[in-house]
Each structure stands twice: as C-alpha cells, then as structure tokens.
Write a structure and sequence with these properties.
By secondary structure, this protein is mainly alpha-helical. 88% of the residues lie in helices and 0% in strands. The termini are far apart.
Length: 34
C-alpha cells in the first residue's frame, strides 16, 4: 500500500511537471508564433 502510494505520488508529480512544461511551450508558441 505504501509503495503504491509512493509510486503514485512520484508519477503524479512527473505528470504535473510534464503538463506544466507543455503549457509553457504552448504559451511560447502562442505569444511567439513562428
């Protein structure tokens, strides 16, 4: 149970970080169109 919670927490943090980076890339593309 504890191990699953730990793995879920790590994966959740990774997903949130990836999602945040994708949002930043989208903002860059939006404000600075190529």
């Amino acid at each position: 149970s504890g191990l699953l919670a730990t793995e879920f927490g790590v994966s959740e943090r990774t997903l949130r970080r990836d999602f945040r980076e994708r949002l930043m890339y989208l903002d860059l593309d939006y404000y600075n169109p190529l």
